[in-house]
From TrEMBL:
Highest taxon of the lineage: Bacteria
Stated name of the protein: Histidine ammonia-lyase
Gene3D superfamilies named among the record's database cross-references: Fumarase/aspartase (Central domain), Fumarase/aspartase (N-terminal domain)
Cellular component GO terms held in the UniProt record: cytoplasm
Cross-link (5-imidazolinone (Ala-Gly)): 146-148
Pathway: Amino-acid degradation; L-histidine degradation into L-glutamate; N-formimidoyl-L-glutamate from L-histidine: step 1/3
Modified residues (2,3-didehydroalanine (Ser)): 147
The keyword Lyase is assigned to this record: yes
Organism, as annotated: Thermoflavimicrobium daqui
Record note on modification: Contains an active site 4-methylidene-imidazol-5-one (MIO), which is formed autocatalytically by cyclization and dehydration of residues Ala-Ser-Gly.
Keywords: Cytoplasm, Histidine metabolism, Lyase
Length: 510
């Protein structure tokens, strides 16, 4: 049973909320009795296969191209140890602790389903590392995203064996030192267990789960910030009329238009068609269509990620109830690879349209406001260069959005001849999210500054957003270090403060 202090792991019920509690809030986990029973049953079946010396991939054979090499029962322990050591060859910067925690949690959850032939004792050893916040050092590069995230997951497993390095209490140390310090013993892997631990999609899934969590904040923030911009430019909310959205029918568009009208409710700054202009530019008029399409992409991506969070992704799989071992390709990351590319494109578009709104705010020919939103321009440059930064970030996003999933390079002597490259797409997705966050933060700054040149009242939701920023940052009256303004604005997005404050008073939907 799940309590406020511990989350039970069943294998098929892990939610995004539970994931966030374990990964971000460090809530401990434990195996459910049902999971322990199912794992014990599949492990007993593996032991029987080894005893009978039946030919089973990765249990009594080598791996990949070596699958035709028979391994005796006396060699089975060494086979699993060698697998982890040889596959721990990743390169690049270490993954952040949150991603590592996500990998550990997701691997435990997949193994808890009871189809992997691994003992509860081994899974409990991984849980002990997670609960005691002993985090393996896992290089970020080296996975092809098929046969799973082999190299990263091998690095995750090294500390179980007293090998590799871990991050513990803010220091990177040899794992054996930390295990001795906390009273944990290295384990010996049983037949199939090394393969069960590393044959999966948990790195790319952890990266994408984090992307889903952050994307929710950005999509709602984009609506809030764009409402401020629309007011600063005296835009026309008639384009958000419900009938207009309904006749097209896309749910994201309908939801976004509803959000915009709620945020702008009571505004004295918006205008009617032909009052100042007949129609707004696309970056204002088409907010429901653009933001809405990204919301629809988000919901599809979230569905795929939530499915993968509770999936069995190793090979072969053990089905003791029918006495079969079935080899297949559940480790192939194609579902996640496609989602990684789809989601990062969707979020890059949020940045693209945001930067165009920022340009409209700072350009006096488009805004009717003081150039670059500063009085005494010339002596002061105002927010001129913030738009440069936004333009640089959206350009960088365009490079990052080249799809990783369209590429494949054969491996293991052409035995593994199609791979997903999902881990690359997932890493790039988080980079796009980080850039998009800063682009929105820049629009937030410029929209709030533009409102300094009017005394009219903002809408119900946009007023909350304006006040929140002004609690931390005064209006720009003379030039100051722009990076500090961007940092303050970004933190309001990053820590969900903006979304939380606005949604307390305004019902926003995603």
């Amino acid at each position: 049973m799940t309590t406020d202090k511990t989350i039970d792991i069943h294998g098929d019920e892990l939610t995004l909320e539970q994931y966030s509690a374990v990964v971000h809030d460090r809530v401990p986990v434990q195996l459910s009795p049902k999971a322990i029973q199912k794992m014990s049953s599949s492990k007993a079946h593996v032991d029987h296969l080894v005893k009978e010396e039946q030919t089973v991939y990765g249990v009594t054979t080598g791996f990949g191209k070596f699958s035709d090499h028979f391994i005796t029962s006396e060699q089975s322990h060494e086979l699993q140890l060698n697998l982890i050591k040889s596959h721990a060859c990743g390169v690049g910067e270490p993954l952040p602790e949150e991603i590592v925690r996500g990998m550990m949690l997701l691997r435990v959850n997949a193994l808890a389903k009871g189809y992997s032939g691994i003992s509860p004792r081994t899974v409990q050893a991984l849980i002990s590392l997670l609960n005691q916040q002993i985090h393996p050092i896992i290089p970020s590069q080296g996975s092809l995203g098929a046969s799973g995230d082999l190299a990263p997951l091998a690095h995750m497993c090294l500390p179980l064996l007293g090998l590799g390095e871990v991050s513990f209490r803010g220091q990177i140390r040899p794992s054996i030192q930390v295990l001795n310090e906390v009273g944990l013993e290295p384990i010996q892997l049983e037949p199939k267990e090394g393969l069960a631990l590393i044959n999966g999609t948990q790195m790319m899934c952890s990266l994408l789960t984090e992307a889903i969590i952050q994307a929710r904040t950005l999509l709602l923030s984009a609506d809030i910030i764009s409402a401020l911009t629309l007011e600063a430019l005296q835009g026309i909310p008639h384009a958000f009329h419900p009938l207009l959205q309904q006749v097209r029918g896309h749910q994201g568009q309908i939801t976004t238009a509803k959000n915009m009208l709620a945020l702008l409710d009571g505004s004295e700054l918006t205008t009617q068609p032909a009052e100042k202009r007949v129609q707004d530019a696309y970056s204002l008029r088409c907010i429901p269509q653009v933001h809405g399409a990204s919301k629809d992409a988000y919901h599809y991506s979230m569905h795929v990620v939530e499915t993968e969070m509770n999936a069995v992704t190793d090979n072969p799989l053990i089905f003791p109830e029918i006495g079969q071992v079935i080899s297949g390709g559940n480790f192939h990351g194609q579902p996640l690879a496609l989602v990684a590319d789809f989601l990062k494109i969707a979020l890059a578009e949020i940045a693209n349209i945001s930067e165009r709104r920022t340009e409209r705010l700072v350009n006096p020919q488009l805004s009717g406001l003081p150039a670059f939103l500063i009085q005494n321009g010339g002596l002061h440059s105002g927010y001129m260069i913030l738009q440069y930064v936004a333009a640089s970030l959206v350009s960088e996003n365009k490079v990052l959005c080249h799809p990783a999933s369209v590429d494949s390079i054969p491996s293991s002597a052409n035995q593994e001849d199609h791979v997903s490259m999902g881990s690359i797409g997932a890493r790039k997705c988080l980079e796009v999210i980080e850039n998009t966050k800063k682009v929105l933060a820049i629009e937030y700054l410029c929209a709030a500054q533009a409102l300094e040149f009017t005394t009219k009242k903002c809408g119900r939701g946009s007023h909350i957003a304006y006040q929140l920023l002004r609690e931390s940052l005064p209006p720009l009256t003379e030039d100051r270090e722009g990076y500090k303004d961007i940092e303050i604005s970004t933190k309001l997005l990053q820590h969900n403060t903006l979304v939380n404050e606005v949604t307390r008073k305004v019902d926003l939907q995603l």
